[in-house]
From TrEMBL:
Family listed: Belongs to the MreD family.
Described function: Involved in formation of the rod shape of the cell. May also contribute to regulation of formation of penicillin-binding proteins.
The name this protein goes by in its record: Rod shape-determining protein MreD
PANTHER family: ROD SHAPE-DETERMINING PROTEIN MRED
Domain of life: Bacteria
Pfam family, one: MreD
Main location: membrane
Topology of this chain in the membrane: Multi-pass membrane protein
Species this protein is from: Rhodanobacter glycinis
Subcellular location as annotated: Cell inner membrane; Cell membrane
Length: 161
């Protein structure tokens, strides 16, 4: 298998695994701690392969996530598109941050994502979520260094550009 085909499969496979990880059920007690996996994987690919990641791709992945998750159509598409837009805008800076600063930037992006979700759900007429609902961005930010290093290591072992 040539490198280009392997790179495409690796890219698509990580996005698919992130969607499947989003669907994994957790006990009710642990549900607020589940990170938003598609956002974390999209952030990785935006930082590492910004030329490959587009807003249209983020929107399409978000629509797929909406269909799989059974939420309001366009909710996750809007969130992921906004997330990738901001990450692409500041990509040249974020890539060269030390890991602790990059983690803080990811936390800010994930909190922004939660605020967008809160606005969309408020317009849909849903009640305000409990306070534990805000834990997920912090869990995602705590997992960011490990996810980044794992995906980067696997990408280097496979010699994918």
């Amino acid at each position: 298998m040539n490198r280009t085909r392997l790179a495409r499969w690796w890219f698509a496979g990580t996005l698919l695994v992130s969607l499947l990880a989003m669907l994994l059920p957790l006990p009710t007690v642990l549900e607020p701690f589940k990170p938003y996996w598609p956002a974390l994987v999209l952030l990785y690919w935006t930082l590492e392969a910004g030329d490959r990641m587009t807003l249209g791709m983020a929107f399409a992945l978000g629509l797929g996530a909406d269909l799989l998750d059974g939420v309001l159509l366009g909710e996750q598409a809007l969130r992921l598109t906004a997330l990738v837009f901001i990450a692409l805008r500041f990509r040249s800076r974020l890539r060269f941050f030390p890991m602790w600063q990059q983690t803080l930037a990811v936390l800010a992006l994930l909190v922004n994502d939660r605020i967008l979700l809160l606005i969309v759900r408020a317009f849909a007429g849903e009640a305000l979520p409990p306070l534990a609902w805000w834990v997920s961005p912090f869990v995602g930010a705590a997992l960011w260094p490990f996810l980044f290093l794992l995906m980067d290591d696997l990408r280097m072992r496979l010699r994918i550009q």
